[in-house]
Protein backbone atom coordinates (compact mmCIF):
# COMPACT_ATOMS: atom_id res chain seq x y z
CA UNK A 1 0.00 0.00 0.00
CA UNK A 2 1.32 3.43 -0.93
CA UNK A 3 1.79 6.15 1.67
CA UNK A 4 1.82 9.91 1.20
CA UNK A 5 1.38 13.10 3.16
CA UNK A 6 2.46 16.66 3.84
CA UNK A 7 5.31 17.54 6.19
CA UNK A 8 6.09 21.15 7.15
CA UNK A 9 9.71 22.18 7.67
CA UNK A 10 9.84 25.11 10.10
CA UNK A 11 12.42 27.04 12.07
CA UNK A 12 13.99 30.45 12.48
CA UNK A 13 15.86 31.99 9.52
CA UNK A 14 19.15 30.52 8.31
CA UNK A 15 19.09 27.14 10.07
CA UNK A 16 19.27 25.23 6.76
CA UNK A 17 15.65 24.33 5.99
CA UNK A 18 15.93 24.88 2.23
CA UNK A 19 19.33 23.16 2.06
CA UNK A 20 17.82 20.17 3.86
CA UNK A 21 14.99 19.81 1.36
CA UNK A 22 17.24 20.34 -1.67
CA UNK A 23 19.60 17.57 -0.54
CA UNK A 24 16.80 15.12 0.27
CA UNK A 25 15.25 15.71 -3.15
CA UNK A 26 18.62 15.57 -4.85
CA UNK A 27 17.68 18.66 -6.83
CA UNK A 28 17.57 22.36 -6.12
CA UNK A 29 14.05 23.74 -5.81
CA UNK A 30 14.58 26.31 -3.06
CA UNK A 31 17.14 29.10 -3.15
CA UNK A 32 19.77 29.23 -0.44
CA UNK A 33 22.36 31.69 0.85
CA UNK A 34 24.35 32.38 3.99
CA UNK A 35 22.05 35.32 4.71
CA UNK A 36 18.91 34.79 6.85
CA UNK A 37 15.38 35.25 5.46
CA UNK A 38 16.35 34.01 2.00
CA UNK A 39 13.12 31.98 1.74
CA UNK A 40 10.02 34.19 1.52
CA UNK A 41 7.45 31.67 0.28
CA UNK A 42 5.95 28.41 1.46
CA UNK A 43 7.30 26.15 -1.27
CA UNK A 44 6.38 22.51 -1.90
CA UNK A 45 9.03 19.91 -2.74
CA UNK A 46 7.99 16.34 -3.55
CA UNK A 47 10.06 13.29 -2.61
CA UNK A 48 8.89 9.96 -4.06
CA UNK A 49 10.75 6.74 -3.31
CA UNK A 50 9.44 3.18 -3.18
CA UNK A 51 5.88 3.23 -1.84
CA UNK A 52 6.33 6.60 -0.11
CA UNK A 53 5.70 10.16 -1.19
CA UNK A 54 6.59 13.06 1.12
CA UNK A 55 5.35 16.52 0.16
CA UNK A 56 7.66 18.92 1.98
CA UNK A 57 6.47 22.43 2.77
CA UNK A 58 9.58 24.63 2.91
CA UNK A 59 8.53 27.65 4.96
CA UNK A 60 10.02 31.12 5.48
CA UNK A 61 12.06 31.49 8.66
CA UNK A 62 9.90 32.41 11.64
CA UNK A 63 11.23 35.53 13.30
CA UNK A 64 10.20 38.29 15.70
CA UNK A 65 10.57 41.23 13.32
CA UNK A 66 7.04 42.00 12.15
CA UNK A 67 7.50 45.69 11.36
CA UNK A 68 7.13 45.33 7.59
CA UNK A 69 4.16 43.78 5.81
CA UNK A 70 6.50 41.35 4.03
CA UNK A 71 7.79 40.05 7.39
CA UNK A 72 4.24 39.54 8.62
CA UNK A 73 3.38 37.69 5.40
CA UNK A 74 6.43 35.46 5.84
CA UNK A 75 5.53 34.56 9.43
CA UNK A 76 1.91 33.96 8.45
CA UNK A 77 2.95 31.70 5.56
CA UNK A 78 5.09 29.61 7.92
CA UNK A 79 2.40 29.11 10.56
CA UNK A 80 -0.40 28.55 8.03
CA UNK A 81 1.63 25.76 6.43
CA UNK A 82 1.04 23.74 9.59
CA UNK A 83 -2.74 23.83 9.23
CA UNK A 84 -2.98 20.88 6.83
CA UNK A 85 0.15 18.79 7.33
CA UNK A 86 0.54 15.28 8.70
CA UNK A 87 3.69 16.08 10.66
CA UNK A 88 5.94 19.04 11.44
CA UNK A 89 9.73 19.22 11.53
CA UNK A 90 11.56 21.93 13.44
CA UNK A 91 15.10 22.54 12.22
CA UNK A 92 17.59 24.12 14.61
CA UNK A 93 21.32 24.77 14.44
CA UNK A 94 23.87 22.98 16.60
CA UNK A 95 25.56 25.30 19.08
CA UNK A 96 22.85 27.97 18.84
CA UNK A 97 19.48 28.33 20.52
CA UNK A 98 17.79 31.72 20.20
CA UNK A 99 14.55 33.36 21.33
CA UNK A 100 13.13 32.70 17.85
CA UNK A 101 14.05 28.98 18.15
CA UNK A 102 12.22 28.92 21.48
CA UNK A 103 9.19 30.66 19.98
CA UNK A 104 8.95 28.05 17.22
CA UNK A 105 9.34 25.13 19.66
CA UNK A 106 6.65 26.51 21.97
CA UNK A 107 4.30 27.05 19.04
CA UNK A 108 4.57 23.58 17.55
CA UNK A 109 4.47 21.92 20.99
CA UNK A 110 0.76 22.77 21.06
CA UNK A 111 0.02 21.08 17.74
CA UNK A 112 -1.75 17.69 17.79
CA UNK A 113 0.71 16.32 15.23
CA UNK A 114 3.81 14.15 15.17
CA UNK A 115 6.74 16.48 15.84
CA UNK A 116 10.30 15.77 14.72
CA UNK A 117 13.28 17.88 15.69
CA UNK A 118 16.23 18.08 13.30
CA UNK A 119 19.50 19.26 14.81
CA UNK A 120 21.39 20.56 11.77
CA UNK A 121 25.03 21.46 11.01
CA UNK A 122 26.52 18.73 13.22
CA UNK A 123 29.59 18.75 10.97
CA UNK A 124 30.59 21.97 12.75
CA UNK A 125 31.01 20.20 16.08
CA UNK A 126 34.66 19.70 16.92
CA UNK A 127 33.79 17.96 20.17
CA UNK A 128 31.27 15.27 19.25
CA UNK A 129 30.48 14.64 22.93
CA UNK A 130 28.80 18.05 22.95
CA UNK A 131 26.13 16.61 20.67
CA UNK A 132 24.59 14.61 23.53
CA UNK A 133 24.14 17.73 25.63
CA UNK A 134 22.42 19.47 22.72
CA UNK A 135 20.12 16.51 22.10
CA UNK A 136 19.18 16.41 25.78
CA UNK A 137 18.38 20.13 25.77
CA UNK A 138 16.11 19.77 22.72
CA UNK A 139 14.37 16.76 24.29
CA UNK A 140 12.97 18.95 27.09
CA UNK A 141 11.18 21.32 24.70
CA UNK A 142 8.31 19.17 23.40
CA UNK A 143 7.01 15.64 23.05
CA UNK A 144 9.10 14.82 20.02
CA UNK A 145 8.39 11.72 17.97
CA UNK A 146 12.11 11.73 17.19
CA UNK A 147 15.18 13.96 17.31
CA UNK A 148 17.51 13.45 14.37
CA UNK A 149 20.99 15.04 14.14
CA UNK A 150 22.06 15.79 10.54
CA UNK A 151 24.33 17.84 8.36
CA UNK A 152 22.11 18.94 5.48
CA UNK A 153 24.94 20.53 3.49
CA UNK A 154 27.01 17.32 3.67
CA UNK A 155 24.00 14.97 3.38
CA UNK A 156 24.91 13.26 6.68
CA UNK A 157 22.21 11.08 8.28
CA UNK A 158 19.53 12.19 5.82
CA UNK A 159 18.57 8.58 5.08
CA UNK A 160 17.68 8.09 8.74
CA UNK A 161 15.63 11.28 8.72
CA UNK A 162 13.70 10.15 5.65
CA UNK A 163 12.90 6.82 7.36
CA UNK A 164 11.52 8.69 10.38
CA UNK A 165 9.43 10.95 8.16
CA UNK A 166 8.04 8.12 6.04
CA UNK A 167 6.84 6.45 9.23
CA UNK A 168 4.55 9.45 9.83
CA UNK A 169 2.77 9.18 6.47
CA UNK A 170 -0.80 7.84 6.27
CA UNK A 171 -1.66 5.02 3.89
CA UNK A 172 -3.19 6.61 0.82
CA UNK A 173 -2.57 7.13 -2.87
CA UNK A 174 0.21 9.48 -3.91
CA UNK A 175 -0.84 13.12 -4.02
CA UNK A 176 1.30 14.02 -7.05
CA UNK A 177 2.66 12.11 -10.06
CA UNK A 178 5.92 10.24 -9.41
CA UNK A 179 8.02 12.45 -11.69
CA UNK A 180 6.89 15.77 -10.16
CA UNK A 181 9.32 17.37 -7.69
CA UNK A 182 7.71 20.76 -6.98
CA UNK A 183 4.44 22.62 -7.32
CA UNK A 184 6.20 25.87 -8.22
CA UNK A 185 5.58 27.31 -11.66
CA UNK A 186 8.40 28.57 -13.85
CA UNK A 187 7.59 32.25 -13.35
CA UNK A 188 8.07 31.71 -9.64
CA UNK A 189 11.27 29.72 -10.16
CA UNK A 190 12.65 32.42 -12.47
CA UNK A 191 12.01 35.14 -9.88
CA UNK A 192 13.62 33.07 -7.13
CA UNK A 193 16.66 32.29 -9.30
CA UNK A 194 17.26 35.99 -9.96
CA UNK A 195 16.80 36.81 -6.28
CA UNK A 196 19.30 34.14 -5.29
CA UNK A 197 21.93 35.67 -7.58
CA UNK A 198 21.25 39.09 -6.04
CA UNK A 199 21.97 37.57 -2.64
CA UNK A 200 25.20 36.13 -4.00
CA UNK A 201 26.51 39.31 -5.58
CA UNK A 202 25.33 41.91 -3.07
CA UNK A 203 27.07 41.63 0.27
CA UNK A 204 25.44 44.56 2.05
CA UNK A 205 22.04 44.48 3.73
CA UNK A 206 20.40 45.41 0.43
CA UNK A 207 19.14 41.87 -0.41
CA UNK A 208 16.51 42.15 2.34
CA UNK A 209 15.05 45.21 0.62
CA UNK A 210 14.94 43.63 -2.84
CA UNK A 211 12.06 41.92 -4.58
CA UNK A 212 11.67 40.39 -8.05
CA UNK A 213 8.55 40.46 -10.20
CA UNK A 214 8.39 38.56 -13.51
CA UNK A 215 6.66 40.90 -15.95
CA UNK A 216 6.94 38.59 -18.96
CA UNK A 217 7.50 34.87 -19.39
CA UNK A 218 6.96 33.73 -22.94
CA UNK A 219 8.30 30.95 -25.13
CA UNK A 220 8.84 31.77 -28.79
CA UNK A 221 10.54 29.51 -31.34
CA UNK A 222 12.33 27.45 -28.70
CA UNK A 223 13.55 30.48 -26.73
CA UNK A 224 12.14 31.52 -23.35
CA UNK A 225 11.90 35.30 -23.02
CA UNK A 226 11.85 36.58 -19.44
CA UNK A 227 11.52 40.21 -18.35
CA UNK A 228 12.06 40.81 -14.63
CA UNK A 229 11.70 43.91 -12.48
CA UNK A 230 13.97 44.14 -9.44
CA UNK A 231 12.31 46.28 -6.79
CA UNK A 232 14.40 48.47 -4.49
CA UNK A 233 13.35 51.08 -1.94
CA UNK A 234 15.88 53.87 -2.54
CA UNK A 235 17.76 55.46 -5.45
CA UNK A 236 21.10 54.64 -3.79
CA UNK A 237 20.16 50.94 -3.80
CA UNK A 238 19.38 51.08 -7.50
CA UNK A 239 22.93 52.25 -8.21
CA UNK A 240 24.41 49.45 -6.12
CA UNK A 241 22.30 46.79 -7.85
CA UNK A 242 23.27 48.08 -11.29
CA UNK A 243 26.94 48.49 -10.31
CA UNK A 244 29.69 50.47 -11.98
CA UNK A 245 29.07 50.45 -15.70
CA UNK A 246 26.20 48.01 -15.15
CA UNK A 247 28.63 45.23 -14.18
CA UNK A 248 26.75 43.92 -11.13
CA UNK A 249 23.41 43.67 -12.92
CA UNK A 250 25.11 42.01 -15.89
CA UNK A 251 26.77 39.43 -13.62
CA UNK A 252 23.47 38.71 -11.84
CA UNK A 253 21.68 38.33 -15.17
CA UNK A 254 24.35 36.05 -16.64
CA UNK A 255 24.40 33.73 -13.59
CA UNK A 256 20.59 33.60 -13.42
CA UNK A 257 20.25 32.96 -17.16
CA UNK A 258 22.75 30.08 -17.03
CA UNK A 259 20.87 28.48 -14.12
CA UNK A 260 17.53 28.87 -15.89
CA UNK A 261 18.90 27.38 -19.11
CA UNK A 262 20.10 24.33 -17.19
CA UNK A 263 16.73 24.06 -15.50
CA UNK A 264 14.68 24.47 -18.69
CA UNK A 265 17.16 22.77 -21.04
CA UNK A 266 16.62 25.48 -23.63
CA UNK A 267 17.87 28.97 -24.48
CA UNK A 268 16.76 31.85 -22.25
CA UNK A 269 16.72 35.56 -23.09
CA UNK A 270 16.63 37.36 -19.73
CA UNK A 271 16.20 41.10 -19.28
CA UNK A 272 16.42 42.63 -15.80
CA UNK A 273 15.19 46.11 -14.94
CA UNK A 274 15.66 47.92 -11.62
CA UNK A 275 12.80 50.04 -10.26
CA UNK A 276 12.67 52.24 -7.16
CA UNK A 277 9.46 51.86 -5.17
CA UNK A 278 9.66 53.40 -1.72
CA UNK A 279 8.41 51.12 1.07
CA UNK A 280 7.39 48.39 -1.37
CA UNK A 281 7.72 45.83 1.44
CA UNK A 282 4.72 47.48 3.08
CA UNK A 283 2.70 47.41 -0.15
CA UNK A 284 0.37 44.41 -0.01
CA UNK A 285 -0.46 44.64 -3.73
CA UNK A 286 3.21 44.26 -4.68
CA UNK A 287 3.73 41.48 -2.14
CA UNK A 288 0.70 39.62 -3.53
CA UNK A 289 2.01 40.05 -7.09
CA UNK A 290 5.13 38.17 -6.01
CA UNK A 291 2.98 35.22 -4.95
CA UNK A 292 4.27 35.44 -1.39
CA UNK A 293 3.20 32.43 0.60
CA UNK A 294 2.04 30.44 -2.43
CA UNK A 295 5.06 28.67 -3.87
CA UNK A 296 3.08 28.30 -7.08
CA UNK A 297 2.96 30.02 -10.44
CA UNK A 298 2.29 33.68 -9.81
CA UNK A 299 0.43 34.08 -13.06
TrEMBL record:
Alphabetized InterPro entries for the sequence: G_ERA_dom, GTP-bd, GTPase_Era-like, KH_dom-like_a/b, KH_dom_type_2, KH_sf_prok-type, P-loop_NTPase, Small_GTP-bd
UniProt record, GO biological process: ribosomal small subunit assembly
KH type-2 domain residues: 194-278
Stretches the record annotates as G5: 150-152
Keyword Cell membrane set for record: yes
Annotated region described as G4, given as residue ranges: 120-123
Binding site for GTP: 11-18, 58-62, 120-123
Era-type G domain location: 3-171
Residue span of region G3: 58-61
Keyword line: Cell membrane, Cytoplasm, GTP-binding, Membrane, Nucleotide-binding, Ribosome biogenesis, RNA-binding, rRNA-binding
Region (G1) location: 11-18
NCBIfam families found in the cross-reference section: era, PRK00089.1, small_GTP
Descriptive protein name: GTPase Era
Source organism: Suttonella indologenes
Amino acid sequence: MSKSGYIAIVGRPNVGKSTLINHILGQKIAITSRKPQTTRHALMGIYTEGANQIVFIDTPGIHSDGKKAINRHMNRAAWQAMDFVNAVVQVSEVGQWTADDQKVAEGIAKLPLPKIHVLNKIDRLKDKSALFAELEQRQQLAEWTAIVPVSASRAQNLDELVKVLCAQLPEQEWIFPEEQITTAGMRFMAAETIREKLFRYLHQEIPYELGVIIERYQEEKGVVHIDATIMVERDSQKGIVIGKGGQTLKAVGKAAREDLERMLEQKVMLRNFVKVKENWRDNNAIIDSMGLGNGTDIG
